[in-house]
Amino acid sequence: MAASHSTPGLNVAERQTPLWQNENVRAFALFMLSLGIFLLFWEIGAKSGWFVKGVPTATETIKEFWWWVTNPFYRNGPNDLGIGWNLLISLRRVAIGYIAASLVAVPLGILIGISPVAFKAFNPYVQLLKPISPLAWLPLGLYLLRDSEKTGIFIIFISSIWPTLINTTFGVANVNQEYLDVSKTLGASRLRTILKVIIPAALPNIVSGLRISMGIAWLVIVAAEMLLGTGLGYFIWNEWNNLSIPNILVAIFIIGLTGLLLDSLFAALEKFVAFGRNS
Q1: Please, are residues 60 and 246 in contact by the beta-carbon 8 Å criterion?
Q2: How far apart are CA 153 and CA 94, in angstroms?
Q3: What is the percentage of the chain residues whose pLDDT exceeds 90?
Q4: Matching Gene3D superfamilies, A to Z (predicted)?
């Protein structure tokens, strides 16, 4: 029987799966292929008149996009700001309203989750206010606050509070009873149990709620700003009044890219929390 032998000098790295068989590489290649097909269809369609009159070509839109991202902070008066300024304005409003909502939703969610009485008392408010469109609050906010900046922050607050509140409540209410029993056996106080057992166990649900709330906040602010002035929403509305479709598309791409970045940050935090819990 012939003795088997391995090829000399063949290390582990050389025996690994070929690059083209790597799942991430294939996914990236498919993404680039689909993007190329989409841009080609867009370019040919716009030049051939397949779409309605006035639709810009892909190359025209990409040129506009490049101009805006290379000149983001120009200022020609209060109503003619670079897209970088408008992005910062929108992000500032989102940050203030979102942080305020989180500071209310997380503690309140913990309270409702650990107390059946609090759940029964506050749940009707949640079920009543949760389905209301955030934009329905816009006229009331303008009337009460008499300030577009404060109204934008108020809209973000009222729209982003519910996912965090609901997820926090769910996470706290569904903490493994064995954890609570062990804590009680060891003589831990109620506050220590909340800080050392309940919150760490519910953290993945809390972060998941924060992630959903951020997505909703970023979604809502653009619509609200069309009526408030300044910000990316106002930029889009202003470019529509100027019938500048390429600039509208540029703003849409920037909104999408910013949303993708924000969601990726929370996805990384979610993975970190889940890893810390399982390790």
Answers
A1: yes
A2: 7
A3: 39
A4: MetI-like
